[in-house]
Amino acid sequence: MPASSDDILGRARGLIEKLNKIGIPTASICVDPIVQPISTHSNKGVMVLNAGSGQLKSNFRMG
Q1: Total domain count, the chain
Q2: pTM of the model
């Protein structure tokens, strides 16, 4: 499980890069940062909100 919102973004970046390398264009990729059990730790909800509140849009081209 990701330990921080930066870890969520890093994993998303790595996944997108791997998918691009096998020919899948970024515009065809949908990354959902909320797909993790936010009920397992009290900070998971905050991590999800931080990762989704503009950080994804500012770090990745959203088509």
Answers
A1: 1
A2: 0.56
pLDDT digit string, tens, across residues 2-21: 677 788 788 888 999 999 99
The domain of 20 spans 5-59
Burial string for 31-59 (b: 16+ CB within 10 Å, else e) reads: bebeebeeeeeeebeebbebbeeebbeee
Both tokens assigned to 52: 């989704």
| pLDDT tens string 28-53 | 998 876 666 666 667 777 776 776 66
Residue keyed to tokens 């390398």:
21
Q: Is 54 left (phi over 0), alpha (psi -120 to 50) or beta?
A: left
